[in-house]
Amino acid sequence: MFLLTSLLIFAPLIYLLIGSFSSEVIGHPDAHPTLDNWITVYTSPLYITAFLNTISLSAVTSVVSLVVGGAMAWVVARTNAPGKDTLALLIVIPLMLSNTITTLSWIALAAPNAGFINAAARALFGVNTIFNIYSFGGIALVLVTHYASFAFVAMYAALRSIDGSLEEASAMAGAGTYQTAWRMTLPLVWPTIISSTLIIFVLAAENFSVPTLLGAPFNFQTLPARIFYDMTVEPSKPTLAAAAGTMLLWIALLGTFWQRKTIARAKNYVTITGKGSRPRIAELGRTGKAVCSGGLVLFVLIAVVIPYCALVLGSFLSFLTPRLTMKLLTLDNYLRLFTPDTFVATRNSLLYSVFGGLFMTLFYVFLAYCIKRSHGTSGRLMEYAVIVPTAIPGLVLGLGILWTFVGLPLPIYGTAAILIIAYLSRNVGYGVRQSRVALVQVSDELTEAAQMNGATAMRAFRDVTVPILQPVLLALWTMLFMNVFTELGLTILLYNYKTVTLPIALWNDMASGHQTRAFAIAVLQAVIIFTIIFAANWRWGILKNTLDK
Q: Tell me, what is an example of a GO biological process annotation in this record (predicted)?
C-alpha cells in the first residue's frame, strides 16, 4: 500500500522534473538533458511577468477575502445580528459551485459591451461602461467572491471555539463590543487568520479558469494560463510548460509549508481546555444590527443573487447583446443540452463523480486505516506523503500525470482511468485527513476482536469499520462528488473527445465564442450540484456540519 501511494503521489512530480530538464518530450529520439528550459523560464520577461501577475493577484485576493470573510464570520458567530443563520447558508453557495461558473456569471453581468449592468447604465444614464470585468479588478473581484466564502467557513469555526469568558472579562473592564473584537477576539484567532490567508493565496495562485478567461482580452497572464498556452497553442512547448510548472510548484509548496508551521504554533493560542466554555454573543444595538445584517445581505447580493441571476438570464439568449428584448429570449441553448456531445459530457461527469467518488472514498478510508494500523516508519512516511498533493496545483499535477503516462508503456492516456488516477491523487490529502478523523471513533478492540475470530484484516475493515463509518463516508463522498464534478484545471490536459466532462464542454464553448451556450451548461452543472447538496443536507446535514467544523 505504501509503494502504491508513493507512486500515485511522487511519480507525477518526478516525471515533471525530468521533463523540465529535457530538450524534448520523454521518449523522443532527440531528447537529451538540458538547462535551457529553466534558464528561459526563470529569465524570460514573459514568464517573470506571469509570475509577478500571479503573486500580485494572489496577494490582493487573499487579503481582501480574509477581511471580508472574517468580518462576516464574526457577525454570524459572535453577534445577535438578525437573519444571520439563513444568510450564512447563502454565503457558502460560491464554495459549492466552481469558480468557472462564477466567472461566467460575471461575464454575463459586467462584460464591457453587452454585460447587463453596463447595458443598463448605457441606456439609463448614457454611461459607456461602469465596470469592466476584463480587468485586474474584475479578476480579483471574482476570486474574492469565491474565496471569501472559504475564509468565512474557516474563521467561523475558529471564532466559535473561543472561550467566551475572555471577552466577558474584557467587557467587564469597560471595553465596548467592537473594541473587544479588535483587541481580544482578533489576536486569539491570529493563527487561523494567517493560515487561511496562506491557503487562499495558494488557491488563487493555482487558479486556472478565472484569470485565463478574464485575462485573455487584455493580455493578462498568470502562471497557470502561461502553462496552458505552452501546452495547447501551436507550436506547443511541453518542456517549457514543465519548467514553468516548477515555478508554480514553489509558490504552492512554500505557502503550504508556512501554513503548516503556523498551525504547529497554534498551541500558543489555545483557549479551550478541560474547563467548559461557551462563545459570547455580542449584543448589538439597532444601528449595529442594521449595519452587520446589511453587510451580509450586500455580500449575498453581490456574490450570489445578482451574478447567478445574470447567468440564468444570459442562458436564454442566443448571444450577449446590449439591446435586451423579449423577442431575443430563446430555449435553443437548453435544447442543445440534449445533443450527443453534451449528453456524453454529462454522462462522463456523473460517472466519474458518482462511481469515481465512491472508489476514492473507499480508497482513502482504507489508506487512513492502514496508516492508523501502521506504527512503524512506513506509517509515518505515508502520513506525511499524503500531505504532498495538497501543495500541488491542479494544472501542475495534471501536467505531471501527463508526462508520467506518456513516458510509460501503459495505454491509459485519453481514457477514464487516467482521469480517475488524477482525481485520486488530487484529493488524497483531503480524503485521508477526513477519514483519519472519522477512524478515531472506531476502537482498535473492535477490529482486533474480529481478527481473533478468524477475519482477515480486509474483512475486518469491510465488516466492522465501514458500517460504523457509513455517515462519515457518505458525507466524504458528497464532498468528493463536488470536487470531481467541478474539476477543470486537472482535467483539461488529460481528456479526449471520449472522456470530455461538463467543465470541459463549458470551457470549449467559451473558447469557441458560444458564451450563452456555455451559460446553459453552467446552469445545468449548478442544478445537478445543488440537487446532490440539498439531498445530502436533508439526509446527513452536510451544510450544518460544514459550518460547525
A: transmembrane transport
